[in-house]
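User: Hand in any protein.

Assistant:
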Amino acid sequence: MYKSKAPDAKHPFGAHWLDSCYQETLLPGSHWDKIKEALNNGLAQKVEKQLEHPERKQMIFELLGQDFGKRYFPDHNPDPGLLEPPAMSKTEKDKLMLEAQSWLQNQMYKIANEAGCHRVLPGEEPSDTIHPDMVEFLEDTHRIFSTGLDRQLFLQEEDLAKNQKETLQNKEVMTKPPSRMPSLFKPMTASTETTTSSDKPSTTNIKASIHNLSGEPPTFWGPQSDAIGDSIISILHRDPRRFDEIAKRLHGRQLPGSLRKYMWLDVLFKAERQKMKSVNVEKIVRERFGRAVSRGVGELRVKRATHSPINGLIENAVIETYEVTPSMMPFNYDAHLKEASRSLNVLYVYNRSYEPYLIHWLFPLQLAFRETQIQVSGEHMYELAMYLDLLNTSCFPKWPEVFAIAEKVMTTLAQADEELHDHLKDISQRNVDVSPKDFMVQLIHQEKTKAQAVLSTTPQSSKTKTLSKDLLSDPLIFLRKWVGEGFVGVLDTQAVIYVWDQCFMQGWPSSLLHDVCVTLLLLLRHKFMEASDYHSMKEVFFREPCKLYTADIQRGFIHIQNKGSPEDLPYMNRQRPITPAPTPVPKPKSPAPSTVSTVQLPPVGLKDIELKIVIPAEAVEREQWLSSFDISNVQLHVSVYFGSERLAYKWSQTEPAPLVVSAGTPSSKTHKIDFPDEVFVFDNLDVSQLDVEREMGSYPYAIVRVDYSTPGTSTGSGITRTLGWSKFKLFQHPSQTSRLSMTSQPWVMLDGDYFYTLHSGSVPESIINNLPRTPHSPGLDIIGNTSELAVQTFDPSKEPKTPVSRADSIESVPHWVPTNADTANSNPPASSPSEPFDIYIDGVNFVPDNATIVKVTGRVVKTGEVTDIPDVLAFPKLKSSTRCPRFDYRIAINEEGKAMDPDAIALLRVYTVDRITLELVVIGSCLVGLFEDIDGQRKLRVGGEQHRLKSGMPDLRNGIAALKMTDLDEAPLVPGVTLLTRIVPHTEEMSKSPLYQSGYYSSGSCEPSASERKIFDSYDKDQDFPVSVKSMVSLLQQKEGEKSPGQTEDDMMLWLQNRLDNKKQLAPQKPAGNLDLVRCVRYRQTVGLNINVHSAYGLPEGLYLHCMSRLLPGHTTVGREPTEEGHGKEYKFLTSKHDYASLQKAPVWLDDAELIHPYYDTSTSLLIQMFVMNAKYLPTPDHSTPGKVVAKDGGQLALDADSVLGWAVVPIFERDSVMAGQHFVPVMRGSPTPEILTEFGASTAVDVLKNHTWDNSSTIPGASLLVNVWDNHYTLEEHPPVLERDELLEVVGDVEKYEQAKEDTTGPAMTQLVVDCLESKVKKLGTNSDIYEQERKFYEQAMSETFYELMESALMAAGYGPL
């Protein structure tokens, strides 16, 4: 029943149950019949246009098959001879077949999109509509597959049960399998300090039963998981493109055996496969390896490859390694040892390489590719040696990277656990007694000279001890050994396989190895803290990791990969010391003591809950009930958990109230909901019986679920749906904050005001059980990812000092309001310069994205007889808008009535804390004239005024007294930011500031530009920017680790003033810098960015070339589905228009900028490849119509690998913003390697290029590209000043040589390419003829269209999809 057959047209998967499901979808009358009919009709229409070319027509019909031809083209007469010799050679036929296949694939793609029947793959642009038949087909296919899988697993379980029964019946005649060898490092029994009187099995008994199991250990998988693994392999054989998707979904999980073998092999051969396409790579690599081994046997003069000249050395090393390595001990028997040593011998014969660490690398490969009966001779050893070589050359990090990983781990440890880091550094220098041979490999690869010095000294000499101590006592050397041996030397077998599964699934990134190191270090924290000198520290590094439970390592690793707090990791080690459980005693009648042990939880409360629910427009279209969303139907469900055990839960009982709702946007609607009277109090939280959860490092946390109940109707009851949920900690152990040892300490409540993300949908089981999170498509989300929960955690026994920060009624500020003359006329009469007056600071409008809290400072200059005028220092109101903060500030001037200079000026500046760098900077400045001419006299400039801010300071080299109102005119504008001031005659009482929308302020100079209107629209839609100044203060405090629970508004205002204090925040005599104008507006995907490939320099002459640009997404965005608007798709585009007045070696392109909308990732970059079209243009005799484009050599026109002149890369993001500027980037020779393309996805372009060596063989000397990049919020004319970015030129080569190439204006122009195509008599006239002008247009049209078609065909053939 379970036997499979070789795949064919009717059985494409080769697996019985999968093929059965496939055939069921093809039954007559199925949804697929309707879809197929629509696709065939569309394809027939496309094919009809290709019938004028006999050879092409014959090839298309051969590819489509006879049935298609007979049905849609009954008059077609096939002529196979057209494609056979002598009419056509085999090479020409193969080329024609490839072209026809690419064309058919392209047409099917277009037809499916047009018909709404295209299944959207990751990275592709979704269709506007999906045909109803396609929706039904997908749903039906899912049902068939799910049912088939359930049936298959059920039948398999029946077979397994039957086999097990037969095994038990025959038990007395069966030979008992050999028992597992005990580990020298992991005890056969385990115990803890905890005992309980519970009826359930104690942890001690559970551990003992696990460790007392006997028999041959399983090979890390079972038949059930293998069945699913085999099915996945069948799917991958059918569609290998799903590999990355499957690897992502299996993240954090251990692989079934069959799938492990498949996926490991796929990764091992990946680098070779990228070098050799359209061939049987595995066969070629095997043959190449075999030839090299045969050659090595002859060169070394040995009889067989399994017995090399260093066979004795290898055998001794293998035996010694297996005797002391925990993971290898269960496999320390002759057959396995022989397999290892012989495989290493084969590798030595192959390339003369042998290192002790290769024994460790080989071990997981032996397990993964283990034969049913391990052979001691034959091909298996050769295969293992080949796999080991591929691992070494293509997968495992090189030694410099291993050292970098170790350095980064120590840096991470210093940040996450400073106490442990300093402790390791300290004890590593105590009682140092090192053995250089333990670390010789790691040492040699790091510092060869120093390593040789250790080897050359006399044993036990003082020099040896000094060198050894300096080089080998640092904890770094242990981490290098961990990573360098692939953790095989220190982990148990199960954990080794688990870690290597993760490495292969993710492609061996250094970040993964880093996370494994951090996980192990923090899981063993208590052991390291108990170590007192170098020897005991070394014992922990070498002897303790293998004792960890694999499940604990898995849990910790997933926690780190999911960006969890490193502080939680020590508590995930179930073998750490724990607090003894209390002896049960009768409950006292009097209140319990105030000190609460870790098995008791004090009461905890939640109050002042606010919700921000963002409902996307596409969710409303999909879920009609959202169109009539009523906040009164929203209800909260709060549960308190300890680990996976729920302790208590409660529902909200009060009516929610609406807060001020921000303006809706076309793409979403935001509801802000308050529960002002709802208080959740949880007491009597008993965790004394949860010993297993405590040992697993569990902690108390809450899950708040937001439900929505639609009202019932006459025909049925209402339905309750879950909108979203949020999980957050309620307590933490004191050792997580004070780093104390883990003793009987009370839990510390995390009281205070907090903001948490509200996730869409029901609460996933993985959130409670800490399982690996499977990535999901956001397409069915009900609420947007910017939804938020605000909550105050409090101690019910104490009265909180202040209520939670909430969004008060905040003035909604319009983008711009023209001056209202009626309102302005209400000002008091203007006074003379000798009368007192007041300057008011009323507000700042539209603080930029990279600003946070603000203050306004200023000074009045040219004061005449008036002295001792204090400087302006204004701070915003905490309850005003963060984006448009308001002030209650005035400064009285000339209260004594002295004569003041009528040309007096106030210089005002607005300061902020940069949101990214957290540095104190100046947003901008403005000059305010205090007096003006009225009827020939200087009078006070009475009234309100709106001032644009300019970046920088006026020129003060002639002294501040020489300041003029025009001194900032040439300074760059700060986009959208304005300052509101008032000047009025002095009054005893402060007057209230008018509303901006009243038109009181003179605003003529501040009317927004087109770019500023775009910016303001983005501000309106921004749901992430804190609403109030108070919430921004709280966010900054939390970001800087200075948030104090229970602080008052006075405390927050004092903190704001100190944080903006120049003397406290800046070094002496150091002025504040200017806010980066390029980052004033953060990147928003809906708005996008513009890219313009402008020109090149230093290229060879005589070439017709264009650039193909392709986005390389960063690692955090790879595989993400495009948005509903199509944003985030795969972007690629071409240049097509030359400036024919430019030089051939410095061509300029006139194409419009390309607008793209990629996901944000600092590693995202633009790859630009320069393609040369080896073609010539043949004009028509009468020059009246475009001519033809043919290959120069008379062959077939095509773009292939030989057509690539060079490539360049352009970074596009930094610090939440577009990396706007004129990018001058170097041109590298040929095509980028697959390895470097992978690096670009993981690191910034600068870092990647720095990690490689570049010379004249890898670059085109002096050649560079100019690429303009800017945020689409701006027009190019209104963009703030940008820099020429040439940092990549500095990384790759000599900047002066690139500059010389840019300044070289000699050589033929592009026009000469056109002239050379013309007949002699016209050619003599050069560019001075009407024929030239006409042919230049024809040349550009024909060449660019041909280039486009060839590029699209090349892309389709390479599997990239059409342009």
